[in-house]
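**Sequence, structure tokens**
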Amino acid sequence: MRALIVLRRARRDGVLLVVVAVLVGFAIALATILPKLVTDAVDAGSRAAVAAAGADADIVVRTTVGHSPGGAPAATFAELTSLADALPGRLPQALKGGVGTPTVSVSSEDAAGVVANEAATPTHLSVQFAAVGDDAQRGLQLIAGRLPQKNSGEIEVVISREAAEVALIDVGTKIAFTKIGGGSLTATVVGVVASSDESAREWRDLRRMWLPTSGSRTAAGSGVSIVALTTPGSLDRAQSLFLETYAATVRVPLVVAWFTAERVSLVAGALRGLELKTSDLAGDFPAAVNVHSDFEDALADFPERSRAAIAQSSLLIASVLGVAVAVLAQLGLLLAVRRTGDLALERARGVALGTVAAGALIESAPIVIIGGTAGLLVAGLLFTGDFSPTPASIFVALAAVLAPPVQAVRIARASWWSRRIAANGVDRRAAERTLRTRRVSLEVFVVVLAVAAIVAIRTRGLLQGATVGIDPLLAAAPLLLAAVMAIVLVRIYPVVVRAIAATVGRSTGALGVLGAAQAQRALSALPVLALTLATALVICGGLLINTVASGQRDASWTSVGADARVTAAVSDDEVERLAAGPGVTAAGSFLSTPGIGLTGAPATSFITLVAVGAGYADVVAGLSGTPAAGNRDDADRLRSLAKVSKSERLPVLVDPQLADRLGDSKDLVITVGGTNVEVEIAGIVSAGPGSLNGPALFADRSQLASRLEAPLVADTTLVLGPGAERAARSIPGGAVLTRAQWIRDQQHEVLVAGVHRVMLASTASVALLAVISLIAGVIAGTRMRARSLALLRTLGMASRLGWWLAAAETAPVVVASLCGGILSGIGVVVLLGPSLGLASLAGGTGSPAPSLSPSVVIAVLGAGVGLLLIAVAVEVAAHRRDRLSEVLRVGETI
């Protein structure tokens, strides 16, 4: 019998149950897709970080190969290659599957060689013998000659094309060396080669192969320094040239595609342990082995950035799921309200509340199963590829299952309250005070939770390095703040509406009286909470997106230093030409040299010397008012650096960091290119446009060059103005970086783009949930408005005024929710924004200031007007077939 009643009710409310099933599927799909988007974004960010680290993240095994003069254990090249082949299998379990094919390289110390030629003076070379694995040799491209033969009895070498050009040697050239202890040895150049990828890992430890130096002084003497690539057998024969064994390196690359965010931390821990214990890795290799990797340093900022991305996304996802649960509860309430009469009859017949709950549960469970399964299928097929439920989707499913029974029990209990009511007025008032106390206690509890969450985020931040994920209390902070706002609205709304109703109720006609009555009973906690949450999240998401965009624009000034930056050697005439170009407001150049020694201070310091050139002060003046360092006072101080005679100390400006370090120090001297230059501090200036490795010291380039008696050529040019990019690209061979390009690169960075997608998806989803919530509220009052319209009809008034009643009932909810949601959203951004780790998205060194864009608020207000229009349209559609003359005849009463 009970099952039959449930079936009949389900048939009668079939459309609403289908809507509930669709909403359940949508909510569970969101609960599955949004966390997956975050996981995918963070995992993709980990792969991007490993790829950006490149060879710096390799596992590097250093050892020695060759004969050991001191009798220490020695190894052969063949044993080295065997070690390289065995390394992937000997790595810890956390690294299994994440490494590629090892590369091998062996190099000697420099040996002094002489090339006999037709000139009277022979050519002196500093030669480093080297050998690489077969894979690297196969990547060589022959320009002339051939590769060395492994079984040749002579020492045959190949050199790079660059080395041949610098050393003026070619195929067939013979280089003579003197052995240790006497005698000579000759190496023959049999080939000249090039590489398709000179930056490949194979050449990471043999940089001089493609970058020979000319005129440098080395341990082997003065001359050209080159690398001679040969075979392992020739290395053995050349051993007599050296006192020490050869340095050998096995470089194990990491497979970028294998990495996830979790594996980054596991690999970092495994590598730390590997560096401390190398015996398992070395096996029976005869020489000492040293293992090192810069993986952790190369990815030093990734853990914090990934935690920030997870925290920010989790904050939004928790809010979206909170709105979804609130809307599901609202639909459960709508379903219970539509069955108020049935529930009252059941209670009158003595049906227990447990039976009422069981009937609602029998109905809601299949709907949630069907809708949830559909949501998982859609999420798996279109987005995640995984059909298993997540903890968030299970939570949403439980809320969807329990919402109808809870609401049904609440309605049934209110419709037939069996508890005795005291006849004594004092006892009744005491009972009412008890109920009010319970309600106030619950509201105070919510307020305390919200305050605790906000204080926790403000004090220790949303990021937690010691734990995985974030604290649920912290993630619920926006929800709690919106809930507090909903409580306030429900409390103050009756006072406001009562005052308005008192005025409207005095108007002539029934519409004013009915509208006032509708408005007074319109506001209930659940619809207001759902719409306030939705509005708060839309405002919060929009303002966070705007804050990040504003932070990226500010960070672009700090990172680039101007509208465009060119890295290339430029003359003062070229800078003046740029400054006079169309659309250019200023152009200036400078030469930045880090690692300059500064003496005379309390302790010897190493500083970055910035030699400012033509137009630099004009650029600093043009940057006034931008986030980049610089103002007009700085520009005047920089111009004054050129106004001094050569006999005086060189005037310099220092940044605040260096000024604090120097204090009142006098007799300061900087050492530039081996020349000591006496300097005098003329003032303090900002750190300068662009990112400089401070502490920084600023000097006029012409004045500094006159004291060094050597020309100084600027290597960086800054350009301001709308025509900056076009002007910058006119410099031949210059590497150009513009602010617009920097912002685009930052926006398309994998982790940033992933979090941005989550923000957009969350905002769009919650906007749709807000529409569903409002429609549910309109439908919930349909029957009551139908009775009101029927009454108007009997009084002889127009029957097409349902839109007025719907607007009178819906407008207070929308207006109150908009006000509360806007305040809550702004509060979240202002109170929690500095603690959300937004710097990781903005690309700056600090958290961007909250950007309270009026356009976001205006857009939400416009959306509120659209919601009202939707509500009116739904009302009109719901009553287009009503027979108002029969509404009061079928047993309904007002």
Notes: Residues 14-53 form the longest helix (40 residues). Residues 425 and 431 are 10 Å apart (CA to CA).
